[in-house]
Amino acid sequence: MTQLTDIRREHLRTALALAASGVPVLPLRAGKVPFGNCHRCNGNACGGRPNMKTPGPCSCPGPCHGWAAATTDPDTISSGVWRRAWMWASAVAYHPGGAGLTVVDLDNADATVWAHANLPATQIVPTTRGEHWLYVGAMPSANAVRPGVDIKSTMAYARWLGFGSGTMAKLPDAVRALAVKEPTTVRPVAITVAPLVGGGECPHRTPAYLDRGIAMAERRITAASSAVHATVYRTFLAVLSTHGRCGCLTEAHTARLFTAAQAKGESPRHCTDAWTNARTRLGL
């Protein structure tokens, strides 16, 4: 027990030393899951994802868990909620992007061999399954940029495993390019929803009114940054409530909405289900 306590005290000392050098840190519990750093969010009470890796909505002055909990403030690190957290911590984590760094996380031997053959030499830290390659410069984080390779920088955290060896190089274009995905070509699938039956008087004085409505619906779906399923359903419901009873809404219009939803990651089945549920709610 004494040995375990000494290890956890060493985690705190390491965290304070890193923070003093400008590296934002946070404690990790078993399973590489972070602690929150305020009482309101203790135990994930504020609604982040169950594993606490991604900040969720909260009423605190700022996001205070996941990568966003990382801080260089010694008082936050050594007191408050974290004072007890360090007694249970299994490791120290840090926010690479907050320190102006990027970590190329190589998760297996094949990924490590690839990096040695394709990336500029830099500071290398051994991990349990591979290596962390550290570069000076921040960039958007990205998972699975190639087999066994993740990029951890902004809005992510990495375990602190020591300084490793080598001299840290400037973030190269070869690493930045890994996170750039080629534009996906969305191929609209055949729409299998039942046709609308028009029976009411058409309130649309010009076709442009309907076209503007469909364009606005496309933009609403495209702009969704979260809750895409719900946004698609609500948008379909709004379109159908306005244009669903007069017979003006054609399969071409529906195809535009389905295409926008698929571009946000919705499957054809989700699109069809959302459309059908919206029609059912409106009695169409």
Looking at this protein, list some descriptive labels.
single chain; 10 strands; 6-stranded mixed beta sheet; alpha+beta; 284 residues
Walk me through this protein's architecture.
The structure is a single chain. Helices cover 37% and strands 14% of the residues. Strand 7 and strand 8 form a beta hairpin. The strands form 2 sheets. Strands 4, 5, 6, 7, 8 and 10 form a 6-stranded mixed sheet that branches. The chain has a 4-stranded antiparallel sheet with strand order 2-1-3-9, covered by helices on one side. It is an alpha+beta fold and 284 residues long. It is built from 9 helices and 10 strands. Helix 6 (207-222) packs parallel to helix 8 (251-263). It has helices spanning 2-20, 74-78, 81-85, 109-118, 173-178, 207-222, 228-243, 251-263, 268-282, and strands spanning 25-29, 33-34, 91-94, 101-106, 123-126, 131-136, 142-146, 149-152, 158-159, 169-170.
Query: In angstroms, what is the radius of gyration?
Result: 25 Å
Structural class: alpha+beta
Strand content: 5-15%
How many H/I helical runs? 9
Q: Averaged pLDDT, please? A: 80
Extract low-pLDDT stretches: 47-57
- Which sheet architecture does the biggest sheet show? 6 strands, mixed
The rough form would be described as: elongated
The helix/strand series, from N terminus to C terminus, equals HEEHHEEHEEEEEEHHHHH
Helix content: 25-40%
End-to-end distance, in Å? 68 Å
Number of strands: 10
